[in-house]
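Hey, weird one. I pasted the Calbindin-32 sequence into the form twice and got a warning about non-standard characters only the second time. First submission, copied straight from the form history:
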Amino acid sequence: MLVELKACFMEAYDDNQDGKIDIRELAQLLPMEENFLLLFRFDNPLESSVEFMKIWREYDTDGSGYIEADELKNFLRDLLKEAKKINDVSEDKLIEYTDTMLQVFDSNKDGRLQLSEMAKVQCLVFINVMTISFFLQGATKLTKDDIERVFSLYDRDNNGSIENEELRGFLKDLLELVKKDYDAQDLLEFEETILQGVEYSSDGKISRKQLTMILLALAKHNQEEEPSTP
């Protein structure tokens, strides 16, 4: 019976007949709202937190530090336009999708998305966070290759400095290591704390030397906070 059931299931859902159920085929089993969420997260990954911070600035149109329902709806509308699916979704359905996204990701139930909640919407692959975490757990000595690897993660335009959304993406990933629930104000305060004492320039950029100082300071801080073993 199980073999027959499997054969019927594969016949119904294995559209490309490769003997496997991929994520798009799996989505057919879900209600429309959950189907949309699953495919949205699969189709719209971000390369880094730098791109995420650009999106955050673009859609937080009132500069409140939160993505409210109308801003989230505009974000979803633009995604559907880019995917050429906007004609398949009515305004009422778009509102329904927006409400569903808020229900799923608005963990503190304040009717809007803060920075950490929006990051979950974007389904970020935190390669940057894991890379930085690896270095900070190590010794107080960082090699030139270590610094170059981290620096290249954020210097997306390859101009030799980390600035604007690159800097905010870097600081957001640092904040992610120490605080899972955070908003734009937390990021601003964290930026002020981190940049104190690294000869931060007024032009809003950090160099490789300043990046090295930040990582070394954080690595030292982490080691000092670790409980001593008997």
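That's the output from the first submission. The warning seems to come from a hidden character in my clipboard, not from the data itself. The mean pLDDT is 77.
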